[in-house]
């Protein structure tokens, strides 16, 4: 089966607290949602899926190099969105807008993943933070238009993801500070 893994940027505590506040406001309005725990919200740069220990070891020095080449930065939280874009929603998310260096970090993460034997990601990168998933299909809700400030992004993390009944458990396998 392998180790289920992904590469992500972690958020600062202030951004997590603002997202937790947004979740509390939305909870009564969005029935049937399985909410992500605030301490588990992250910006996935590359989902790896089932991975071998050798592939993850191959990835670590490449991620360290990519993180070193990218300075810490702020990303503006741009508001709520839904996946898929049409029809019954499955995922509620908050978008992020960030500068070219962070986009390059995502591209470098993708290149590192492919270089270590992972299949290329076929989907275009869409920076977002998943807040929750609907358990069942339902109508598209109206979402408030709220500003949520910025998130400070200063570390790249290689995570192990274990699916559990109460929600996924994310364990850092390696952490790489941005800009060294």
Itemize the secondary structure elements and their pairings.
Blueprint: E1 3-9, H1 13-26, E2 33-35, E3 43-51, H2 53-68, E4 73-83, E5 91-97, H3 100-115, E6 128-134, E7 150-153, E8 155-162, E9 169-177
Antiparallel strand pairs: 1-3, 1-8, 2-6, 4-5, 4-7, 5-6, 8-9
Helix pairs in contact: 2-3
What keyword list fits this structure?
alpha+beta; five-stranded antiparallel β-sheet; four-stranded antiparallel β-sheet; 9 strands; globular; 3 helices; 180 residues
Describe the overall structure.
This protein is an alpha+beta fold. It contains 3 helices and 9 strands, in the order βαββαββαββββ. The chain has a 5-stranded antiparallel sheet with strand order 2-6-5-4-7, covered by helices on one side. A hairpin with a 6-residue loop joins strand 8 and strand 9.
């Amino acid at each position: 089966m392998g180790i289920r893994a992904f590469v992500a940027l972690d958020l600062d505590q202030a951004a997590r607290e603002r997202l937790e506040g947004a979740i509390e406001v939305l909870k009564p309005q969005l029935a049937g949602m399985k909410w992500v725990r605030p301490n588990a919200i992250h910006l996935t740069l590359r989902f790896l899926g089932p991975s071998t220990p050798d592939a993850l070891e191959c990835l670590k020095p490449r991620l360290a190099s990519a993180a070193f080449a990218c300075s810490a930065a702020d990303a503006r939280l741009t508001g709520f969105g839904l996946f898929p874009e049409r029809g019954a929603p499955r995922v509620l998310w908050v978008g992020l807008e960030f500068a070219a260096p962070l986009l390059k970090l995502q591209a470098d993460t993708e290149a590192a993943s492919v270089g270590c034997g992972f299949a290329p990601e076929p989907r275009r990168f869409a920076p977002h933070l998943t807040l929750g998933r609907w358990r069942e299909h339902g109508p598209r809700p109206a979402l408030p238009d709220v500003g949520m400030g910025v998130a400070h992004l200063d570390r790249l993390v290689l995570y192990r993801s274990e699916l559990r009944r109460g929600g996924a458990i994310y364990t850092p396998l390696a952490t790489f500070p941005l800009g060294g």
